[in-house]
Amino acid sequence: MQLKQLITVLLMIVSSVIAQDANKSLRDNVAENPQLKSLSALISANEGIAKVFSEEGPMTLLAPSDSAIEYFGSSNLPQDAKEIEKILRYHVVNKAANVTELIDHKYPNTFLTEGVNLPDKAGQVVVVTPKGSKNATISDGINEAKIVQGDLAAKDSYIHVIDTVLMPPKSPSETARQVEDLSTYVNTLITKDQLSTIDDAKEITIFAPNNDAFGQLSKSVLESDGIKDILKYHIVKGVLYFRVITNGTKSKTSQGDDVLITVDGEDVSVNGAKVVRADILTNNGVMHIIDTVLDPKSKSAPDAKSSASSIETVSGVVAFVCVFVCLFLN
């Protein structure tokens, strides 16, 4: 980096630190931060979000820098004030958290609640991933933002300056359309009239097979009516974010049978199919991409009936032994 550029960066950092005042409101601190002039203008122009930012904490602002908003482009901002408010609400975590605390929360809820179908009517989450010991990235499931300056204290609040504008997660079908490796999955849902099974559901996890996974299926399977049950078998009831899944989790699917989720270090698999991309957020849960199409009739699928039979068998053996012991003692 040239000396002139280095001096410019240092001046920006110093000036923003000087402007920061832990006794002032979050909104006042945004207004006085030289990196956040565009964000301050958006807040002032939007009555709904201005009220939120004028309140006292606790809250944490993931504040897109001027360069982040410039790169995003004013033409990409919705014309409707309510839609702009949703975007801004999605940048406010509903608790005061420094970077370390954000990392600990992993999936903190934001102030965005409208159009969100998550458990307990909670606000939409962001994904916080540690980068080193004292920094993190923030993701909306599609876009990832770096914290370029964190732990700026305001009254009962924190500001973390980020380098990317985050976008509120959309419906599963809209979200999947943004992922190139899910084009076959989306087309299969459309041709089999199954979009509503993922878009209208509440509080779900979708294990979406990638294009290579669908490429392993025969044409006869893809065109059969049985593919509908296979698609439903990839929808799990309950929101299972990647970093909080526990080994041995057995979850009920929309098809009716269970899937078995295993965790081995950093690897997560469902019925043996590996998760190759995780935590793609949707407005009703989360989506993980897997490398194999799951088959409820496969030997790798958990068999509830055989498990129940095993339990009954063991119980029968135990009962027989108890009777035998009692007769022998008598």
How would you characterize this protein structure?
The protein has 14 helices and 13 strands. With 330 residues, it is α+β, with helices and mostly antiparallel strands. The chain has 2 domains: 3-162, FAS1 domain; 172-303, FAS1 domain, CATH 2.30.180. The strands form 2 sheets. It has a 7-stranded mixed sheet with strand order 8-7-13-12-11-10-9. α2 (26-32) packs across α3. The longest helix has 26 residues, at 304-329. It is elongated, with a radius of gyration of 25 Å. The model is unreliable at 4-11, 14-18 and 304-330 (pLDDT under 50).
Descriptive labels:
FAS1 domain; 2 domains; elongated; alpha+beta; 38% helix; 22% strand
What's the architecture of the largest domain, going by CATH? Answer: Roll
CATH topology of the largest domain: FAS1 domain
* Basic shape: elongated
Strand sequence of the main sheet, in spatial order? 8-7-13-12-11-10-9
In this structure, how is the largest beta sheet organized? Answer: 7 strands, mixed
What fraction strand? 15-25%
Name the helicity range: 25-40%
